[in-house]
Amino acid sequence: MKVAYVFPAQGSQRVGMGRDLYDSFASARAAFDQADEALGFPLSRLCFEGPEAELRQTINAQPALVTVSYACLRATYEVSGSGLPPPAFIAGHSLGEYTALAVAGVLDFSTVVYLTRERGRLMYEAGLRQPGGMVAIIGLDQASLAEVCDQTGTWMANINCPGQLVISGVKENLAQAVDLAKARGAQRTISLSVSGAFHTPLMQAAVDGLSEIIATLPFGDPLVPIVANTTAQPMTNAEQVKTELLRQFGKGVQWQRSIEYMVNNGVSTFIEIGPGGVLSGLIRRINKDVKTINIGDASAIKNMEAICRED
Fold first, then answer.
1. In what order do the strands lie in the sheet with 234-235?
2. How confident is the model over 172-206, as pLDDT tens digits?
3. Would you name the residues annotated as active-site residues?
4. What range defines the domain where residue 237 resides?
């Protein structure tokens, strides 16, 4: 059995996330304490108590989700020991790709927390310079939506699964794109609560800022191949990772292709590690024959021993 670990993106955050992990597992508590120390303020308290508006801010949501996802994995290791199947591949959706860096040993966890805090800041500031947003388009095929984007000056930001796509751009253009998508048969559109037109060229200021930060950090080669968002191909060295992190700002997330690549290379089980179960739902819509397991809270982690024995 080949297994892949996958990590969720911004949008999965909620007040209270990780509190049960902190209370139940020493390894998770250590991860939260490490994140607090890396940032110089109690990120853990923001995760546990909010306020929600503050947690939702890009600069806070990104390191918070990385921390909770990483704490989930550490706690799972604490409970299951060697019982958790090792991954053949690791992947993360957008922000989740940064959690993958820590898990694959590209950067240490404290550095990843710092880097995602800076990424969130840069994305927010880029959104102030070039205001924009993102809209999920439900029930329209990729080719039709690509034509809509071409006609309205918007971009395909996330190709999540059949029938669930996300576009990004300036708000006036998004409004035109939504009307055109509905006219072409989209079943529903959902405006996302984000601070900018992520995964588009409008994030260029963030690319420039992150490039300077990345140049100062000690990247290592991944211990496990990380399937890149923008190419849906495995990254096996540090230079590929650096290129991907910068490319990811301006290019769409190829999530469907990433999952298909891993399935075509033998993965039959995907373990989603972190809050919520969004990725598990997407994966089942991409391929109904694979198995998905979600590890997002203390109760799921405590069940892992039984799951590992069953497999």
1. 234-235, 226-227, 89-92, 2-7, 267-273, 291-295
2. 999 999 999 999 999 999 999 888 999 999 999 99
3. 94, 199
4. 2-128+200-310
